[in-house]
Known about the structure:
This protein has 181 residues and is α+β, with helices and mostly antiparallel strands. The chain is 45% helix and 15% strand.
Amino acid sequence: MDHRHCEPENHHQYTQSSAGRPGKDTQYVRKTRERFGIHWQMCGETFAYDDRTDGIFPLMTNDESLSVREALAAYKRQPALEKRHEQLKTVFAVMPVNLKSHSRIEAFLFLYFVALLVESLIERELHRRMKTQNLESLPLYPEGRRCRPPPPNGCLISFAMSAATGSSKPMARCINASTTN
């Protein structure tokens, strides 16, 4: 364990007692101010502990049914979850709002969370159907260009584009893939 302590130290400063140029009869006044100094000393136990724990990756979970490998696999899926929440700021453009009560703010964010959930369920179902029908790509872009796999908001954007333009050509394959078994 480190030994650290803070102790007061007296700091002395000498100044002339009167204004003017100093000479051989000049009297000086000693002013003493108390300042605090920090002192520490490392113990060998600390170095030994650091040597034992260097390179250890602590991984904690509240799911006791997971093995160590399963917990690590779940940890490695974390960026995908964070990517989904990133869509709140990018795709859904959530920004600060001036709501007066905390319950309204919570309700507002809850609705966006539900939108993320619905979007991910649509995406998962679309991926599942694409796999069962052996489809590698879908024409989700406005110009009919294929994309593999569909981006997280790709299908929703395609539905919106086809609704706005009145064209159903790019969406025909997507709708067939998501509605048939």
